[in-house]
C-alpha cells in the first residue's frame, strides 16, 4: 500500500506583511490629518512666539540693531528689574507655601463638619471670579479712606473702641485771645490764673454741625463764680451762628465743647486734670494757692486715626498676595481634599486604636501619605505665581507700582507700558520662561509617575 504525503502550502507571508504596513501607514496619515490643525495652532500660538521672543531679545529697542547679550546684561543692572526678581522670589516662597498649608488645614477640618459641601463651595467660589474683578474688589477693600475701604473701616473701628479719638481735630485758638500754641500741639493760657477765678477758653475752627449731640450753651457756665480754693472755667466755641457776638466772651448762642481734657499745670507738673461737661464747664477743687497755667493737651486736637496704608510701599506686596490667597485657597483645598479622601482609612483607624492623638495622626500619617498630592499642588502654584500679572497691575496704585512689580508686570511695563524697549522686554520674557520650565517638567514627571 502506497501512502502519498500531501504537504499543505501556507500563503506567502510577504503580502500579509505588506498589508499590515499599509494599514499602519494609513492609520498614521489619518492621525496626522486630525492632529495637524492642533499642531498648526500650537506652532502659531506657542512655538513661533517663543522663538520670535528669543530672537527679539538679541536686538535693541528699535529691533534693527543686533546687540547680542546686552539686553540680558542690562536686565540684571536695572534696579526696577532687580526689584521685580526680588518680589517674584517673595511670591514663589510665600504664596504657594501659605496656600498649600491653608488648603491642607481646611481640607482636614472640612471632613469633620456636617455642611462640608456647602463650605467647599463657599471657599471655591472666588475661583469663578476673574483676576480683573478680584483686583477691583481688593483695590476698593484696601482703600485708605475708612469710608470706602472695608479693611480700614474695621481697623479704625477697633482702634477707636480701645484708644478713643479726638472730637475736635480742627479746633484752634484765636490769635490774641489768651491761648498760645505749644510745639507739641497743645494750647495753654498765656497768663497764670489763680484759684477763685472762672476762666473762659474760646476756640474756633469747629463747624456747628460737627459738635457732639449733647453739647449745651456755655453762657451760664461762664458766669458761675468760684470758691476761693477752686478754679472754674469753660471751653466753648467762640462763634455765633448767623454772625454777631463778641470775641473772647461766651455769648448766649455759643455752645460749650464737651469732652475736652483740661489740665492745671504748676512748675511744669500737672497738678489736676478735668474733662469738660456738656456745657463746656470744668472745675478744679482743692488747689493750693498760687498761679497755674491751664493747658488743653494735644490729644484734644489730634487728627483722627486713618487706619493702615495697605497699598503703601511697605505693605503693597503682602496686600496683593492676600488677594491671591483669597482666590486660590479653594483650589488647594479641593485638590488636597481629593487626595485625603483616597487615603487608606485602616491606617488611620489603626493609629487611633494604638492611642495616637489627632495631632500625631495628622503629623505622622496624614501629611506623609499626602506628600505626592501636596507636592503637585505646591509646584502647580509655583508655576502660577511666576506668571501673576493682573492682580499686581490692578491693585497696586501708580506711585507704588514699581514697589509691587514682578517679572510679568515688569516685562509688560518695559515693552508696552511706557518703556517701549521690546528687546529688554523680550529678555525678561525669556528669563520668565526659563524659570517656569523646570517646575513644569517636574510637574509633568510627577503626573506620569502617578499614572504608572
Automatic annotation (TrEMBL):
Q: Is Transmembrane one of the keywords? A: yes
Q: Origin, by domain of life? A: Bacteria
Q: Which GO terms describe its cellular component?
A: plasma membrane
Q: Which Gene Ontology BP terms does the record give?
A: transmembrane transport
Instruction: Name the SUPFAM superfamilies on file.
Output: Cna protein B-type domain, MalF N-terminal region-like, MetI-like
Q: Name one Pfam family in it.
A: BPD_transp_1
**Member of which family?**
Belongs to the binding-protein-dependent transport system permease family.
Name-wise, this protein is ABC transporter permease
Q: Which source organism?
A: Streptomyces avermitilis
Amino acid at each position: 500500500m502506497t501512502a502519498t504525503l500531501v504537504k499543505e502550502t501556507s500563503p506567502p507571508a510577504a503580502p500579509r506583511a505588506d498589508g499590515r504596513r499599509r494599514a499602519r501607514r494609513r492609520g498614521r496619515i489619518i492621525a496626522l490629518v486630525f492632529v495637524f490643525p492642533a499642531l498648526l495652532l500650537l506652532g502659531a500660538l506657542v512655538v513661533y512666539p517663543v522663538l520670535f521672543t528669543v530672537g527679539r531679545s538679541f536686538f535693541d529697542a528699535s529691533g534693527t540693531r543686533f546687540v547680542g547679550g546686552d539686553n540680558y546684561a542690562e536686565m540684571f543692572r536695572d534696579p526696577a528689574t532687580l526689584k521685580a526678581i526680588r518680589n517674584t522670589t517673595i511670591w514663589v516662597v510665600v504664596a504657594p507655601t501659605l496656600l498649600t498649608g491653608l488648603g491642607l488645614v481646611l481640607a482636614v477640618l472640612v471632613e469633620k463638619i456636617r455642611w462640608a459641601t456647602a463650605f467647599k463651595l463657599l471657599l471655591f467660589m472666588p475661583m469663578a471670579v476673574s483676576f480683573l474683578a478680584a483686583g477691583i474688589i481688593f483695590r476698593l477693600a484696601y482703600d485708605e479712606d475708612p469710608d470706602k475701604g472695608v479693611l480700614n473701616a474695621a481697623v479704625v473701628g477697633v482702634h477707636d473702641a480701645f484708644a478713643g479719638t479726638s472730637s475736635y481735630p480742627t479746633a484752634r485758638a484765636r490769635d490774641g485771645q489768651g491761648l498760645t500754641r505749644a510745639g507739641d500741639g497743645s494750647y495753654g493760657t498765656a497768663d497764670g490764673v489763680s484759684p477763685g477765678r472762672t476762666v473762659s477758653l474760646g476756640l474756633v475752627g469747629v463747624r456747628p454741625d460737627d459738635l457732639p449731640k449733647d453739647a449745651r450753651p456755655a453762657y451760664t457756665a461762664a458766669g458761675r463764680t468760684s470758691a476761693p480754693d477752686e478754679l472754674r472755667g469753660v471751653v466753648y466755641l467762640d462763634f455765633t451762628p448767623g454772625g454777631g457776638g463778641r470775641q473772647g466772651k461766651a455769648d448766649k448762642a455759643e455752645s460749650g465743647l464737651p469732652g475736652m481734657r483740661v489740665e492745671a499745670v504748676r512748675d511744669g507738673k500737672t497738678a489736676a486734670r478735668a474733662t469738660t461737661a456738656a456745657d463746656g464747664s470744668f472745675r478744679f477743687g482743692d488747689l493750693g494757692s498760687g498761679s497755674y497755667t491751664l493747658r488743653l493737651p494735644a490729644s484734644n486736637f489730634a487728627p483722627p486715626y486713618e487706619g493702615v496704608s495697605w497699598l503703601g510701599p511697605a505693605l503693597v506686596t503682602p496686600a496683593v498676595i492676600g488677594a491671591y490667597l483669597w482666590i486660590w485657597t479653594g483650589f488647594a483645598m479641593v485638590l488636597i481634599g481629593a487626595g485625603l479622601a483616597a487615603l487608606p482609612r485602616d491606617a488611620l483607624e489603626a493609629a487611633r486604636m494604638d492611642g495616637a492623638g489627632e495631632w500625631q495622626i495628622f503629623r505622622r500619617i496624614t501629611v506623609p501619605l499626602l506628600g505626592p498630592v501636596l507636592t503637585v499642588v505646591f509646584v502647580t502654584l509655583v508655576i502660577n505665581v511666576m506668571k501673576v500679572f493682573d492682580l499686581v497691575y490692578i491693585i497696586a496704585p501708580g506711585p507704588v507700582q514699581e514697589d509691587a512689580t514682578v517679572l510679568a508686570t515688569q516685562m509688560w511695563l518695559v515693552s508696552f507700558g511706557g518703556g517701549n524697549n521690546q528687546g529688554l522686554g523680550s529678555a525678561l520674557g525669556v528669563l520668565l520662561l526659563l524659570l517656569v520650565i523646570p517646575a513644569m517638567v517636574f510637574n509633568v514627571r510627577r503626573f506620569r509617575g502617578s499614572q504608572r
